[in-house]
Amino acid sequence: MLALITIFFSSFVIALSGAMMPGPMLTATISESTRRGFWTGPLLVAGHGVLELVLLVALMVGLAPLLLKEGVFAAIALAGSVILLWMAYGIFRSLPSLSLAWQDPGENQGRLMIYGVLLSLSNPYWYIWWATIGLGYIVQCRVSGIAGIAVFFAGHIIGDLAFYAFVSGAVAKGRSFLSDRLYRNVLGGCGVFLVCFAFYFAFVGLQKILS
To answer: Residue 1 CA to chain centroid, in angstroms?
Structure first.
C-alpha cells in the first residue's frame, strides 16, 4: 500500500511540474477558457488523457524504441508544426468577429477533447517524455503489478487536471475584467505563441533531418 501511495504522489508531482511548463496546451487552455469557462481545462485534459492511455499501452508492448528514432521525431515535429499553424490560423481568422459572449462548453465538449488530442499529437517532446521518463516509471511500477501502472497513470492525469483546471478557472473568473478589445488582444497573443511553437517544432524537425 505504501508503495502505491509513493507511486501516486511522485507521478502527481512530476506531471504537475511538466504541466506548468509553457507550451501549446497551456496557450490553448487560456485562449479557450475566456469563452467557455472552467470546464475548458478538464475537457482538454480528457482528450489528452485518452491519448496518453493509448500511448501508455503502446509503450508497454514495445513502442518506445520507435519513438526514439530521429526520423520519427522529425516527422512528428513537422506534422505538429502544421497542426499548430492551423490552430493559430483559426484564431486569427476569427479575431475580427470575436466577442466575450458566453458560449456553453457543453455544446463544444467534443471539439475541446479533440483539441486536447491534437495538442498532444503536435508536441514531439511529449512522445520523447513518455518514451524515456514515462517508460522508466512504467518499468518501476510494474513491480507492483497492474495496480502500480494504474496508480501511476491516475497520479499523472490528476496532476495535469489539477493544473489546467486551476488555470481555466482563474481565466474564467477574471473574464469579467476583460473588454472585447482586450479579449481579442489576449487571443491574438495566444495565436502568436502557437505560431512561435509551430516554427520551433518545424526548426527542430528540419534540424534532425539535415543533421
So the answer is: 31
